[in-house]
């Protein structure tokens, strides 16, 4: 991390005379006195209160047209990670930062990526006819790969060909779907299974199909929404499990560093055993309506199109062929830094990934455009005299689509400095997918998020703020938690325990990962006037400013304690008496008690700052308080990590092996319940109880960090 802030400019001068040396010493003494009294020990007015007027400057500097211009440049060509167009996009972002006068640079990493070389899909119908299904959005009118658009594929799918295999529909590809098929006598062994996208990750759909003996998988997303032609879209994506470069698990993939072999067992286990390809909903329907034999189970009928009456297997036969290659490529993370004046060694990070499967207007460059605009506004504020209290870092990640690789490699490389110095990470991936503002956060940031929402205008409701609209929505629209593994906050929360927020507009959009995710779609459907882009940038930027400028970090651990209590109540119902929760409830009660004490301490500290000029003692106490607030989240980490996936170390929020679990918290406990299936009652209780104790100890560690005292 230290290298991040290094200044490589060197000035060479002639040897000074003795008189010049004496004068220089006097000047340095004067400057040292000035720096000691007016830079390192500023009054509250010079830091936090004076910063508030710049917050309004930030909001007033918004420009819809500027954001639109950024997005237009970013989406002029497809830019899959590891390709030349992707490098050009990285250079565009880097040039933008440097053009603003920011300290900017890029960091390269070596990573194993995956690309298609050939694909085909043919159907043989029961009447003797044959059809070749188009495997691109353009059908037969344009060549696959036109204008640099990569052919539809699943990254890291193994190559494979299957001839004259029966097609069978498995709904969402869940365990319960295969159980239902088994009850009506359907065996998918040796078949090409057709599944529709749901909440299961792609790798899990393929993994479950392989476990049931399937030969290959076709995965489609039900289209429609914004127009018939989007039913032709193919949802590209990765089928690798886990995050980060598979050749450098747990350490950064730097040039000349350690790298595993592709054939290493720890690498190959992250890839599926059978091949798969994406399919458009239009092409999928051609197969679905031709199936015979078993009728669609009654449990599926409400969610499956009425045109689908039977699930197979057959009589339609499939010729499936996918060929791909895995190769080591260079990816580039891009950074820009605005160094803090009073706490330069405390970092507030804003991150968004830059790579896209195609043009990426929504995913991710709506977020990139917002990030560039925030940098523009911050640079303008700096020119007007603003300097943040803490250091701000803009992060433009690469290869997120392949498994959060760019952010993961950087976090692994800088883990020591981030662990001791990172205040918070603020993530935006798809800034604008459609209507409706959404956010996820670690709970100590809930109150700050709500305060900021009161400052930003709602672009879809004239005369209202985002907070008012948020408060008026139903209970489903709450702040979500960050236990999922679908964007770049994963490495920050789940591996390094850094408080984080994730922001986005809309929940789903019909052109996800397709060639239709273009500037045209955004201007026609997603955000024609770019008002939602401006709203997301407003929330994102104000959050960063509060975290960078507030004298005392705006963290509220009473909110976290309430969230933990709620999680425990739901856990009790989930376990249904199997586990003994007393250790966990006791540790949470202690955490809540200390959180209340900290609130009182914060109020007293703020009062001291208002009543008198900042003394060295008050400054040191404030620094110590902020460190406790910052480091508490790290207490929820466990060095052993989650069972079977040690990289994920957060015991409150993280992924569970039970991908159909009702819990989106306490992942280790959810995993223990899954592993205990088939054990006797005593064994089940012992396994689950151990995980409950692990979480209880994690809460105790967080309590000690917040209290700031040894036991």
Write the layout of secondary structure elements.
Blueprint (H helix, E strand, L loop, with lengths): L17 H21 L5 H17 L3 H11 L9 H16 L3 E22 L5 E3 L21 E2 L4 E10 L5 H9 L8 E5 L5 H10 L4 E5 L16 E2 L26 H4 L7 E4 L1 H8 L5 E2 L14 E3 L4 E22 L4 E11 L11 H19 L6 E8 L7 H9 L1 H7 E11 L4 E5 L4 H8 L12 H7 L16 H7 L4 E6 L13 H8 L4 H19 L7 H19 L6 H30 L4 H16 L35 H9 L5 H27 L4
Parallel strand pairs: 3-7, 4-5, 5-6, 6-8, 12-13, 12-14, 14-16
Antiparallel strand pairs: 1-2, 1-11, 4-11, 9-10, 11-13, 15-16
Helix pairs in contact: 2-16, 3-9, 9-16, 10-14, 12-16, 17-18, 18-19, 18-21, 20-21
What does this structure look like?
- By secondary structure, the protein is an alpha/beta fold.
- It has three domains: 45-111 and 329-549, Aminopeptidase (3-Layer(aba) Sandwich), CATH 3.40.630.10; 112-327, Glucose Oxidase, domain 1, CATH 3.50.30.30; 557-707, Up-down Bundle (Transcription Elongation Factor S-II, Chain A), CATH 1.20.930.40.
- Helices cover 40% and strands 17% of the residues.
- The chain has helices at 18-38, 44-60, 64-74, 84-99, 175-183, 202-211, 265-268, 281-288, 365-383, 405-413, 415-421, 446-453, 466-472, 489-495, 519-526, 531-549, 557-575, 582-611, 616-631, 667-675, 681-707, and strands at residues 103-124, 130-132, 154-155, 160-169, 192-196, 216-220, 237-238, 276-279, 294-295, 310-312, 317-338, 343-353, 390-397, 422-432, 437-441, 500-505.
- Strands 1, 2, 4, 5, 6, 8, 11, 12, 13, 14, 15 and 16 form a twelve-stranded mixed sheet that branches. Strands 3-7 form a two-stranded parallel ribbon. The protein has a two-stranded antiparallel ribbon with strand order 9-10.
- Strand 4 (160-169), helix 5 (175-183) and strand 5 form a beta-alpha-beta unit.
- The protein is globular and about 90 Å long.
- The model is unreliable at 1-47 and 140-146 (pLDDT under 50).
